[in-house]
Specification:
422 residues; alpha/beta; Fumarate Reductase Iron-sulfur Protein, Chain B, domain 2; Rossmann fold; 3 domains; five-stranded mixed β-sheet; four-stranded parallel β-sheet; 50% helix; binds iron/sulfur cluster
């Protein structure tokens, strides 16, 4: 632990207590509690590193009250890497105190790929027992409160797909004259929850004469595990994925989920320990591209169909600050005939999902989400495009609860529509 503290110290001493991070922290804005700001957390970790505070479960709860939205890191005038610091702290706290048994079991389940797959397929078949359809058809509502799963009876969640994405396509999707050969890393959400977005991505790539391999043995990217501090599971999943993807010698690794993309491209660098796998990851990371980046590089196809819609775009934290993708989705949407693009205020502000944050602190995450929905509705848009499944789920929940007419779509689905690939 000493080496951890020494590393923390290098960051902690840089904090000049200026409070710039307060002005961008959604959790602070929603709860008005200094402990929730980056500055407050830095102060707590400073006390730990000086031996004045223990790694207690109370501190663990405080460190979990953070969306890991990365909004505080880029604006910090002293360059404190708050994002890295908070992940490291969660890791130390989980090592000391453990994680709730439900989380631990769920994360361990991710390492048994076939069992996990079977579990979700069974879940899709029997979800009607625990969930009923939401009134406006946007998703499902729990029949009884399920606090262990972070589900109140008002929370609308998407149904599990009865036919996951990876059962809808062969592993290798050939084209007549391939211009490139890519791996499509679907991750869990596109596979089990939003297969239609994944289908759009495969069809777009094939329309550009790209051979698409959807590796059958891919595992969860590990984000839920390592952001909760479970580095044992996070590292195992990261190393398995890198070994699998490196073996394919692909021209690019395409992602359609912001969190998966940010993990594969950046986060794995501080998780993987095996030197050989780390080297493979270093060679691979530059090839990881969000689908919108890849289509911009290829150039939109000609002869686009009109998509008559007013569209606004929400920047997922893991795309805008995780992968540096912000202009590409807008560029594509604005280039499609028929689309009236309307930028919303604070488009790059976190939607409040924050992975497991919204399960633990649903009311806070709803408050933050409501600001997003207010801004989206002010644009008059009828479609909100985004590129993160967790954001989509959380925003759809909020829109359903306020009976909004806005529909959420993955940017790739809108491109596929313009390509006539529905
Ligand atoms: S912005 Fe950076 S330097 Fe300023 S209080 Fe926050 S962490 Fe400290
Ligand atoms: S990562 Fe986001 S939620 Fe966490 S302290 Fe920074 S700004 Fe606040």
């Amino acid at each position: 632990m000493e080496s951890n503290y020494a590393q923390w110290q290098k960051q902690l001493v840089k904090c000049i207590r200026c409070g710039t991070c307060r002005s961008v922290c959604p959790v602070f804005q929603a709860s008005d509690n200094e402990n929730t700001t980056a500055r407050g957390k830095v102060k707590l970790l400073e006390a730990v590193s000086e031996g004045k505070l223990e790694l207690t479960p109370e501190l663990q709860a405080r460190m979990s009250k953070c969306l890991l939205c990365k909004a505080c890191a880029p604006g910090c005038p002293s360059g404190v890497r708050t994002d890295e610091l908070f992940l490291s702290a969660r890791r130390a706290l989980a090592a000391k105190n453990g994680l709730p048994i439900t989380k631990k079991l769920a994360f361990t389940g991710l390492t048994y790929r076939k069992l996990f797959d079977l579990g979700l397929k069974m879940g899709a078949l029997f979800q009607g027992i625990v969930f009923k359809n939401a009134p406006d058809g946007r998703g499902k509502l729990a029949r009884i409160p399920l606090p262990g799963a972070g589900l109140s009876q008002r929370r609308i969640i998407p149904p599990l797909a009865t036919a996951p994405l990876r059962t809808r396509f062969p592993e290798i999707n050939q084209v007549a004259s391939p211009q490139a050969r890519v791996a499509f890393y679907t991750g869990c959400m596109l596979n089990y929850v939003y297969p239609e977005s994944g289908e759009a991505i495969v069809k777009i790539l094939k329309a550009h004469d790209i051979e698409v391999v959807i590796p059958a043995k891919q595992s969860c990217c590990g984000t839920p595990a390592f952001t909760s501090g479970d580095y044992q599971v996070g590292r195992y999943l990261a190393e398995e994925n890198v070994k699998l993807l490196a073996a394919g010698n692909y021209d690019a690794i395409i992602t359609g989920c912001a969190s998966c993309g940010a993990a594969l491209k950046h986060e794995y660098g501080s998780i993987i320990e095996d030197p050989a796998v780390k080297k493979s990851w270093e060679d691979l990371a530059g090839k990881v591209k969000d689908i919108t980046q890849f289509v911009v590089d290829l150039g939109l196809k000609k002869d686009l169909r009109e998509v008559n819609a007013k569209i606004t775009y929400h920047d997922p934290c893991h795309l805008v600050r995780g992968m540096g993708v912000t202009k590409e989705p807008r560029q594509l949407l604005k280039a499609i005939p028929g689309i009236e693009y309307a930028e919303m205020k604070d488009a790059a502000k976190c939607c409040g999902a924050g992975g497991t944050f919204s399960m633990a602190y649903y009311d806070v995450s709803r408050t933050i989400n409501d600001w997003k929905l207010d801004n989206a509705e002010k644009t008059g848009a009828n479609i909100l495009a985004t590129g993160c499944s967790a954001c989509r789920m959380h925003i759809t929940d909020g829109l359903g609860q306020r009976a909004s007419r806005i529909k959420v779509m993955h940017t790739a689905e809108i491109i596929a529509k313009a390509y006539g690939l529905e």
